[in-house]
Every structure is written in C-alpha cells, then in structure tokens.
Write a structure and sequence with these properties.
This protein is of the alpha/beta class. It has helices spanning about 10, 20-30, 50, 65-75, 105-115, 125-130, 140-145, 190-200, 205-215, 220-225, 240-250; strands at about 15, 35-40, 60, 80, 95-100, 120-125, 150-155, 160-165, 170-175. This is Ribosomal RNA adenine methylase transferase N-terminal domain-containing protein.
C-alpha cells in the first residue's frame, strides 16, 4: 500500500482491528440502533463490511486516500469518502469507528459538543474507555457530559487484536444521548465551568472545594452536598451523574 500524502501508519494512528469477536460486538451494538451510520477511520474495511450488511445507509470515511479508493472499489454500494474525522460533518444518528488512539480526546470532545447524533460506538484506548464509563472513578470530561450522555463499557480488546499492534489495549465504548437531559442544555456551559472548577479546586474537603467553585458560603455548600447525598469528604471522581445533577440544582437554588 503506497504511503498516504497525510503520513504513514504511525502518523495516521493506523492500528487495524482484526479481532472477529470484537467486530461482532460492535456490529451487534450498531444493529440495535436506527438510521444512517457514519464510520470514522474505515481503514481496510474490517468494520465497514459487516456494517454494510445491516442494509442501512452507510458513510465510511478515512484520511488515507489509497485505502479509501480501494475500499470504494470493493464496496460500491457504500459511500466511502476521504475525510478527516475532526472535520467531517457528524450529521448521522449513529457514529462508529476504531478511531486513532492519538486522536481519541479531540474526537470525543467533538462528538460530545455536536447536537445531532444519538448513539456512538468507538474503539479507544482501554484507559480512556474505562474512565469514560466510570470504572474506578469518573473523569472531568465524563462528569461534564453526564447530564446529557450515558457511557457504557462493552469489553476490552487486547493490543494483539490490532495490526500493527499498538502499545496499549483497546476498549469498546458506547455513548448514548439522553432522551431527557438531566440539566437544560441552556445551562451546559455554566455547568461545565463549575465541574472544571471543582476538579481543579483546592481546599481539601469537597465542601470547601464546592464553596470556592460555586462562590457560596460553606454552609450553602454543605447543604447542597447533603441534598445531593454526597459526603463532604468525597472526591469529585466519586460522584455519579445523578449526584452531579442534584448538586448543580441544589446550588442553583
């Protein structure tokens, strides 16, 4: 395969998924959704082929022009485009892909800020998938997004399941947009700023961190934590979506 104008495998983060059970898991998750599908990072089509067999409108994109041309010839009934996952419109209801590991965070941030899609199934680094799903504690990005999205972990993918092998394992992460947001979308920016302030705040105990992040009295911070059923000595990563939401609403009073 000739070298792409955009770089080689290392620069493009090309680690092609070859593990049949993982491909079957991803396909089954997508089969449970409705509407058109957008695949990010189609590569040689390991996922594209079973997705195409679902019989739904499918757009597969990849930045490597040589693989795009070859896949388009092999699957003439699929819309195969040379495009950048960080720029291509996210206009379908379902998004799927074995995304380049080094682009995981910007792709996730773009997805979580986009208003149209409803379900995404992604292969990411294992640590990213685990943390986004809240296994072992929640990250700031997950906490910021939780009122509008749910995150589910659907398995670990050994690095030996990719060609060439990356240095870390992968994970199958499913993200769904909530039908009924826990916080109005108009408050999202203010809520995200608040969560960032809590995760980066100082003061030791959470009640004092909340006091500084929300700019309220210590008594008000403690009352809000009590209403949200959050211990004052908890850590930000310990809070789930319902607790963050309850805390936000309590502070808005």
């Amino acid at each position: 395969m000739p070298r792409s104008l955009h770089g080689g495998r290392h620069e493009l983060g090309q680690n092609f998924l070859t593990h049949a059970p993982s491909i079957q898991t991803i396909t089954a998750l997508i089969a449970a959704t409705d509407g058109p599908i957008l695949e990010l990072g189609a590569g040689d089509g390991a996922l594209t082929r079973p997705l195409a067999a679902l019989g739904r409108p499918l757009t597969a994109i990849d930045i490597d022009e040589h693989r795009v041309h070859r896949l388009a010839r092999a699957l003439p009934h699929v819309r195969v485009l040379q495009a950048d996952a960080l720029q291509h419109p996210l206009s379908t209801s379902t998004v799927v892909g074995n995304i380049p590991f080094h682009l995981t965070t910007p792709i996730l941030r773009r997805l979580l800020s986009h208003p149209h899609w409803t379900r995404a199934v992604l292969v990411t680094q294992w640590e990213v998938a685990r943390k986004r799903a809240g296994v072992g504690g929640h990250t700031m990005m997950t906490a910021q997004s939780a009122p509008w999205f749910t995150f589910e972990l659907h398995g670990r993918v050994s690095r030996t399941s990719f060609r060439p092998q990356p240095s870390v394992d992968g994970g199958i992460l499913a993200i769904s947009r909530r039908d009924a947001p826990l916080i109005p979308r108009t408050e999202r920016r203010a809520y995200e700023i608040f969560v960032r302030a809590v995760f980066s705040g100082r003061g030791g105990r959470l009640d004092r961190v909340i006091q500084g992040a929300a700019r309220v009295s210590l008594a008000t911070a403690r009352t809000a934590l009590a209403r949200a059923s959050v211990p004052a000595d908890a850590l930000p990563r310990d809070l789930d979506a319902r607790q963050w939401t309850a805390l936000w609403h309590a502070l808005q009073r």
